[in-house]
Amino acid sequence: MERISDRRGLSRRDLLTRSLALGAAFVVGPGFVAATDAAWAMEVKALKPETMATLIQMARDIYPHDRVADEFYAAAVKGYDNADQAEMIESGIAALNAAAQGKGHASYVGAGWERDRVDLLRAMEDSSFFQTIRGGLVTGLYNQKAVWPLFGYEGESYSQGGYIDRGFDDINWI
Amino acid sequence: MAAPFDLSDDSVVVVIGTGAGGGVLANELAQKGVSVVALEAGGRYLPDDYINDEWESFGQLAWLDKRTTSGDWRVAKDFSGLPAWIVKAVGGTTTHWAGASIRFQAHEFKTRTTYGNVQGANLLDWPIDLAEMEPWYENAEAKLGVTRTGDRAGLPGNNNFKVFEAGAKKLGYKEVHTGRMAINSADYDDRIACQQTGFCFQGCKWGAKWSAAYTDIPRGEATGNLEVREHAHVLKIEHDESGKVTGVVYADKDGNQHMQKARIVCVAGNSIESPRLLLNSASAMFPDGLANSSGQVGRNYMRHMTGSVYGVFDKPVKMWRGTTMAGIIQDEARHDPSRGFVGGYEMETLALGLPFMAAFLDPGAWGREFTTALDGYENMAGMWLVGEDMPQETNRITLNHDVTDQYGLPVPNVHFDDHPNDIAMRDHAYKQGMAVYEAVGATRVFPTPPYPSTHNLGTNRMSEKARDGVVNRWGQTHDIANLFISDGSQFTTGAAENPTLTIVALAIRQADHIAGEMSKGNL
């Protein structure tokens, strides 16, 4: 994840003074989305920053892992920030927000309970927009090497000589 | 004449495909002094090239040419463009296979006789039997270095096996061990012992698992009698006015087409491409495709009854460590109709990495029911279920004229409907698999649906009578004397066992037959 504080010389205070809170998790400002605590931020070019923030929340609601930080979800959907896919994403997120408003929420991210947001997603799960996002996340999220340790997965072992001397049979409770 | 061979050299045997069938056949013929041109659609990758990363390796090795699917099998919904998970490379799917090497049971060569008339199933006895195959199996086991055969020891059990074995014993299963595997338990035949690295499916970087890519192929080439042409995708088999085949047309890496003449053509492109090639070779003389007077080319497609069971425990398992297929339960492989189905199934440990687990555990699923399962990944144990499925005439490979490939040819459509026997067997296997893990304290179990097919069988089946199948007891087509089928598509029925050992044994036997007939002047 690009960190704006590194890449663009914005300090945490600059970031927060230039941004608006979007739900509990994100702040958005001109051309960027960031964590509320500014732990990470990403530049957004083709999409509206609010749209990207909503997409990140949607990604988490589709595959919620409480031990996986937002920045990995952000990385998983970052690829949609391009001119070719911007319209598909903007219209999909607009539909999601409209559905949320129809249920009395200010917006999708404005629905505070995951259960309420998931109900909105269930209602649209057969749409090509939803299936595109969900399908993309299967690799976009779970194929990030940085995510693997959060699940205990160790990845390749050949460079370390395999597990022949490193615990292939070290189970001690069976 | 020594390799390389000229396109116009009509004395060569052309072998199409270089996997367990074609790769072995090509080498065995070359060892006997027969000139062979092996045409391989994929490129050449060796252990140094293999990638211990599931998706990256998939991109390197998998056969990803366009295919379509139909039928009620779940693969058609979950992976509509990917009916099979097989390899496009020198060595074929022997780079990817797990290494399980078990012989058929005697009755599995005689299913029509043993199972009787199963409604909707196109059962047929093989024209050969276990007694005839035994010496060829022994030969194949020695070639592959199969553990627990000959004087070769078994592999040590990894964590995934230990959980599986403990559960099996609690259930009272007796035939539980670390399998008969073409993975070295000690150095053998210039290949080192297994280093318990995992990633067996991505190509063994140690070369501890047998693959034709780094055994039979280079050994055949070393004789000077075998030329392997990579990136040579065969489009059509040609024949003359007498109905004998005369050569094949293939496209090279740049898409340029060439005609390689041949004395004999052996087709070993896997059970989807092999019948497709025969069908795409239709001519005025053979309007329904080559060797298809029976109408059976492409029919009786089998893919084994499969499924997986994963169990989550309250403590870590780390199933990905070590051999991917690390052990087997064989008690359910018997034929015992009292269970509500004919035939039997094997239970074999299996592990997927996190990326593939996310893709295959429950394709299409989302939300916390799914993600809490993955949260338990480190504490998961896994097994694969593989059993005999029923041949059905309507399960078949056909040409889909609405979709064409990179050469403008119709792509294969793979149609499969589960037979009621397949469903009954899968339900039984799920129940037993879940019981294995529950017996040792699983807190949650997952009956996981079939993956894209790795065992593709039966679409050019072997039969005593020409009207019942495509090839005879030697894999020679009933219709065309110098056209052979050399892969799993010649299987009359699928048996419960992983098919590679039988494909290899048949290829060794076929090479012996072809070389003998050539020297007698019969071919």
Explain what the structure shows.
The complex is a heterodimer of chains A (174) and B (523). Chain A has helices spanning 4-7, 12-17, 49-62, 70-77, 83-102, 114-122, 128-140; strands at 20-22, 26-29, 32-35, 41-43. Chain A is an alpha+beta fold and 174 residues long. Chain A has a domain at 45-150. Chain A has a 4-stranded antiparallel β-sheet. Chain B is α/β, with parallel strands linked by helices and 523 residues long. Chain B has a single domain (13-519), classed as FAD/NAD(P)-binding domain, CATH 3.50.50.60. Chain B has helices at residues 22-31, 54-61, 75-78, 111-115, 130-144, 159-171, 216-222, 270-280, 354-360, 368-375, 420-438, 500-519, and strands spanning 13-16, 36-39, 68-70, 176-177, 226-229, 233-239, 245-251, 257-261, 264-267, 305-312, 328-329, 345-349, 380-387, 396-404, 410-415, 444-448, 483-485. Chain B has a 6-stranded antiparallel β-sheet, covered by helices on one side. A 5-stranded parallel β-sheet of chain B has the order 5-2-1-9-17. In chain B, strands 3-15-14 form a 3-stranded mixed β-sheet, covered by helices on one side. Chain B is globular, with a radius of gyration of 22 Å. Chain B starts with 12 loop residues before the first strand and ends with a helix. The model of chain B has no long low-confidence stretch (mean pLDDT 98). The A-B interface holds A 62-65, 67, 118, 125, 134, 138-139, 141-143, 147-148, 151-158, 161-164, 167-171, 173-174 and B 52-55, 156-159, 162-163, 166, 194-199, 205-206, 315-318, 320-322, 353-355, 357-359, 364, 366-368, 370-371, 374-375, 377-378, 440.
Q: Which descriptors apply to this entry?
A:
heterodimer, A: 174 residues, alpha+beta, four-stranded antiparallel sheet, 7 helices, 8% strand, globular, B: 523 residues, alpha/beta, FAD/NAD(P)-binding domain, six-stranded antiparallel sheet, five-stranded parallel sheet
Q: How far apart are the termini of chain A?
A: 40 Å
Q: How widely separated are the two ends of chain B?
A: 19 Å
Q: Compute the average pLDDT of chain B.
A: 98
CATH class of chain B: Alpha Beta
What series of H and E elements makes up the topology of chain B? Answer: EHEHEHHHHEHEEEEEHEEEHHEEEHEEH
Number of alpha- plus pi-helical segments of chain A: 7
Return residue spans of chain B where pLDDT drops below 50 for at least 5 consecutive residues: none
Q: CATH topology of chain B, anyone?
A: FAD/NAD(P)-binding domain
Assigned CATH architecture of chain B: 3-Layer(bba) Sandwich
- DSSP strand count of chain B: 17
Number of strands of chain A: 4
Portion in strands of chain A = 5-15%
Radius of gyration of chain B (CA) equals: 22 Å
Shape of chain A: globular
Largest interface: A-B, 34 and 43 residues
- Residues in β-strands, percent of chain B: 15-25%
User: What is the SS-derived class of chain B?
Assistant: alpha/beta
| Main pleated sheet of chain B | 6 strands, antiparallel
Number of helices of chain B: 12
Q: What order do the SSEs of chain A take from the amino end to the carboxyl end, as H and E? A: HHEEEEHHHHH
Give the radius of gyration of chain A: 19 Å
